[in-house]
Amino acid sequence: MTFGEKLKQLRESKKLGVNQLALKSGVSASQISRFEKGERKEPTLETVEKLAVALGVSISYFSSEENKDADKRHYYDLTEKDERDIAKDLERMIADLSDGGALAFSKDESEIDQETRDLLIASLENSLRIAKIEAKKKFTPKKYRK
Predict the structure, then answer these.
(1) Domain endpoint, select from 46, 67, 88
(2) pTM for the complete prediction?
(3) What is the torsional sign of CA 48, 80, 74, 139?
(4) DSSP 8-class letter at 56
(5) Are the C-beta atoms of 90 and 122 separated by less than 8 Å?
(6) Eight-state DSSP code of residue 26
(7) What is the spatial distance between Cα 30 and Cα 22, in angstroms, rounded to a whole number?
(8) Residue 126 sits in which domain range?
(9) Which of 54, 77, 107, 113 has the lowest CB atom count within 10 Å?
(10) Are 4 and 37 in contact (CB under 8 A)?
């Protein structure tokens, strides 16, 4: 299975559209489409990392076609409960930022534009995902690590 096939299968299993994945990962929708169609074969490590974080899998999930362990979950991979927790935390953070006027972009009283706001939200979501994965890696007892 190629990188693009794995990406498409995983994206669809998470019930995400190409544009939604693009917003979550910071990788352009056109680039994701080209990977899935097989028009681009070799993504950069940075691109793979962004997509893996956004989809809640390890980078090794995409590593090789013959890797039998690629479909195996790691102890630090995000579960559905983790995804729900991240969504709740993100909603709370956005509400706190919006209510307090903390999203003011400059010293003026004007709010930031929608694109900048969306990028900030995507960045917060990725930060929450990374923090959750790192916490799992650090605080999971050794007897539960496989």
Answers:
(1) 67
(2) 0.49
(3) positive
(4) T
(5) no
(6) S
(7) 9
(8) 80-144
(9) 107
(10) yes
